[in-house]
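REQUEST FORM: STRUCTURE PREDICTION
Request ID: SP-0412
Submitted by: Lab K.M.
Chain count: 1
Length (residues): 313
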Amino acid sequence: MSDARTAVIALGGNALSPPGERATIADQFRHTRSSVASIVELALDGWKLCVVHGNGPQVGDELTRNEIAGAEVEPLPLGVLVASTAGWIGYMIQQSLENALRRAGSRRDVVTVITQVEVSPDDPALADPTKFIGHDLTEDRARALEKRGHAVKQDEGKYRRVVGSPAPRAVHEMDIITSLVRRGTIVIACGGGGVPVYCDAQLGLEGVDAVVDKDLVAAVMATGLGAELFMILTDVEAVYSDYGTPRQLPLAKMTVRDAERLDAAGAFGEGSMAPKVRAAVDYVRRTRGRAIIADLAQGRDAVRGAAGTTILP
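STATUS: Completed
RESULT:
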């Protein structure tokens, strides 16, 4: 597969645990099996692939489990919970992908790499929590969390927990992931945005209790791999300007300049689409490759230019 093109695919945590649904493992496996269809199609088309996934709903649930069990067992810090969710979500995606590939007659290998993402310990985002995690909260639950020192903000009129989200600087296991992808292995990496770490002068790598945005780190991954394509699969069919208003308009194509202009005008939702557009723009600007934001079920059509929003240099 030495001449195959490379793509990085970012898969949202909500794709596996949709809002408003009880997040049982059985349901999450069901959604995972559905979510890998586009990835399988790209694999069968010969693409070399790296899959990055989110963990917003799942890591929020893990924090809740910590709080409930706190009187019986020692709670785990957020950075460790990110690693934990990267492991079990990666397992679900890895198993679902391999089963689907075997049914399609493909012998491609699939592997999950628990990934450390280097951040700055002085990143101002660590002191200003803005990253939404977990499911919607009742007002009473939100107030109780605030009293215990947890940050809570409103997301489209609903209360949700927020945590610090530092900017990704580098993927620590980049060389290993690059080697695996080049040989044709489908790699699941930077799960939940990767485990944020920094380099201490005496101790070496040390963890940070935060969550890195999975779209931003996927852009870093796509740049590092020299990928020709960076695709964000989400739960909307395209990027809309003025989404949720009578003026909303689907955008089939945007240049980097168009995207930056619309973003500066506040055309994209700050808690939803804006970070995805910024990650795509960052990748396109650095590589002059192609970025696509599309619905989960339309990945293959989006690659062919028949669905989603394509961002070009």
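NOTES: Residues 30 and 77 are 29 Å apart (CA to CA).
Reviewed by: T.R.
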